[in-house]
Amino acid sequence: MEILLFIFPLLSFLLFQFSSKKIKTEFLYALHIILIAISFILSLYVFFKILNLDKDVPQYFYTLLKFDHLFIDWYLRFDILVSSIIIIVTFIGLILSIYSITSIDDFSKKFKINSYLSLSIFSLLVVITSNNLIQFFLAWYLIILSSYLMAKISKNQIDNRNNFFQNRFSDLCLFLSLYFFYKLSNSINLDVIFKSFPIVENNSTVSHLTFSNLDIVIFTLFFSFLLRCRQFYISNSRYDLLSFNSISYSLVLFGLFLPLGLYIILRFLTLNQISSDFFNVLLLMGTTFIFIFSILLTRTYNLKKILLYIASAQFGILLIAVGLKLFSAVVFYFFTSALSLLILSLSFGVISSQLNNEQDIRKMGYLIFKCPSIFLFILIGFTSLLGIPYFSGFYSNQLIFFEPSLINKESYFLIFTYCFLYTFIISYISFKIILVVFLGQNNCDIHLYNKIKERSFFLRYTLFVLSILIIFSGWYLNNLFSGNSGENLWSLAIIGDTNSTINHNHDNKSWLFETRYIFCYFGISFAFLNYLIIPKLGNNLKLKNIKLFKYYLKYFTSYDFSR
């Protein structure tokens, strides 16, 4: 049964390689959606099967190839972490498949997107279930191939020399990391490699931090992943995410590389669970990501850039949670933030397509009466992302904030960084978008504005289902991730150990969670001040003559000086 998880996306990809003359287009799209939907249902089946296993460590293996006389023993590894990521990826693939049918009119583009979407899902499933280095290597390059094909759909086909060298260096890091995994354990089997980590005793010291050889190899693998991701941040290159359409953008960001990055970090934790310095480096990296992308968020008005920076900062939060060994909180937070970012990306895609692919929010405005349902979906997405009670993000944020306050005083700085910087900025940016795009002065092209209308009922129904999940799934899944039983389950699944379990005492320092809300509401109030109140004061002739006020209007508000 489990092998059908891989067969159906692959079959969908192969079906799209046939000519549309051989298979009617409507039937092909319907069959594609059915195959992806069945894959999603099968992912739920695998998850509950693992959850009900009567084993100390909830996992099992599915044999692919086994020839003892040839020393070939290949199989797929299924555990609760892998099955959770499979659920998210197949669900995102299903939502994007349905969304593409009603939102894209170009037949050629729609055909390619659905084809490459199926290949992308298949590639990621093979990566996260692989249990030997060769499977991992081949699947990694299938993901690279699928992202390359997605990039070809965009009009921007400019090659960047720096991008080329970075990707080749990423390939080198990947090859070296897999090679040294083999050399240190003398096996390509990941289970054998995991069992060999106590044997590897050689350590290296860098800036008073001690790392084993396996730690360095894992850093190299993760660095290879980060280098590969960097290509999406380079403007005017072939892989510039800003040139992707909303479906390709959402798939690459939320359905491929965000889950892959989380998987790489969590999958290899078994090798370095005894290294506190390794976790300290993750804490430092997560804090750095949050700081950098929080600053970038304040300087952009481009919708795709805003989502890209928010997603990058969310990944920084995940790294901090891993560094604090909050394994249940990591998976829960990834689930809720991925759904919130997905509905934001698709809703912004609807608005942008109505305005001739405009991404600058300063060239929008007063769309609440033109797109009331899209306004509601965006509000739900941001509300969950901010962790407002009682959306899904509220429950995952609880785990992030309550548990670290019980670990040690040295962790407080990292939590305060997230609490006082990122929380303020994300709440400010969220309501800046809502105010400028939906409630602010209309700066749209008047001809495009008059033609704006809500998309088809089918598309709105898809976003409605997604919003219902965002509202209620956190409450439903909370028991799976919270409490001692939830922490034990995910600690066993990720590192095979429960020694890092945290004793709950939520009343001890609940002020940290409450302080976060103060900064959240302060960010919302500051957005109202900058984008609703101060622009109105800008019409005051006396204030206009004050240079400091003019500077403030120019750089911190959306005031139109041409008025």
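The record above closes out task 2.4. Task 2.5 opens with a second protein, given below.
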Amino acid sequence: MPFWSRANKHAGLNRPFPPSKRLELLGERKITGDNEQTVAVMRDLFDKNDDLSTRTIDILGHYQASVLYLSNFVDNARLHQDVLKPLMETNTSSLAVKRANVIQFILKQVLSYGEAYVETSLNKIGEALFRGNTILLIQDLKEAIVVSTRSVDHRTPSQPETEQAIRGARDGFIESIGVNMSLIRYRLQTPDLRMESMELGRLTKTKVAVCYIEGLVDPDVVRRVRERLKKIDIDSVLDAGTLEQFIEDNHWSPFPQIQNSERPDKSCAALLEGRVVILTDGTPFALIAPTTFTQFYQVMDDYTERWIMGSLVRGVRLVSLFFSLVFPSLYVAVISFNPELIPTKFAVAVAGGRAGVPFPAVIEVLIMEISMEVLREATLRLPQQVGGALSIVGVLVVGQAAVSAGFVSPITVVVVALTTIGSFATPAYNAAIALRILRFALILLAGTFGLYGIVIGMILIFNHMLALRSFGVPFWSPYAPFKGQGMKDAPIRAPLWSLYLRPKELSPQNDRRISEETVAYAKSPPNRQRRTIISGPRKGGQ
């Protein structure tokens, strides 16, 4: 009878212990050297798991051994070619190995594939099996060899779907954390790059990596990130969004205080500014902290293009952001409370379009906004081949039908359509959702108090943003507290040579990223030597 069955009987329980509890009961129990007993313990631990494979072989010519692995979780080809085949081969040197030295001989001269190490605890062996490793047990030896043979199918890095770039890199993160770490190391080939790994989730054992550049990042930020992650004790971590909800500063704010990105180049740029990047196994998104509001309307194309073009596009993006937040509520306030602000000719056209509409302006706008949100959500959830057609047909047919039926006026359809287009110009999807939530609140305030309601709502929004912090960094920086150097990369994108300092709000240990000589050269480049044109002698000796 297995020892946990005896413990189950002693505890008076009618149901067997689950595998996770059995691992805890194994505790510090050691391997006894009896392979049959150890295999029986592992089989009972993996009860009702048909993918646990066990095999008894003779290794090095005359030693009996047992091999345990999960057949669907390992690279079977390499397991048989690089692990089992070398072990089962016999030569003169292997026959002369004594039993006491057989493990060291296998580690140093036989196994050439992957990571291999020695374990003596049954608990550690069980955990290694759950992770997809192969266990080698040698009869009469109280040690086992753990060989890393885990294999998980994953897609190759492809262009990010949520963050399109015109001139930037075309590779994006995937679900494998190992590949994601290599994509960052490919761009930051420096010994100062640190990647600290930990496991989170009692059942999932998800690998999480905290990436930062030592000597550049503020140590307090790294300490806060590490402490908040270590305090997470939950059953499963299946996505980076789970970690984001546990480590953010304000759980009740509509604004995200941690940025997520699917782009390795953007993550590396954040590391070079003095931020921390968190990678999670099983998800193609990285978390970037600390985060300020300016990051949500900045894209990599701003820096790959010349500064004039980057500033112009960023200005358009900022106008669209403000437009999508305020325009519907401003329309409701002017129509309902202050129609005298509308020019006379335009007011006549608006009044003619609203003739026969049975609802007030606030209800009219809310109906259209809710309809657009339903269409937007339906477009996201439908298959890609159908979703595009639904968005076009939905906007055209539903909008025209609503106008023809007299539910809404044509000007309302135009306002809501322009607002929706403006919201699409926001690069960060989670920030766009926050603006959509606040847009409804402003519409209600405008329908109740008019322009005063909009002013009150904007004051509350700005006060909330001023109070937000992301790992101790003000969310509204560099606007408040005001940072002159930071303003060069906030409403506009100044020339790269003028961005010679890292963001001061991050308190980097090394704040300079461009040398003084390079800045001086960029400001006043030396005059190029002009080509001298030598003409021949003129006619007549002149």
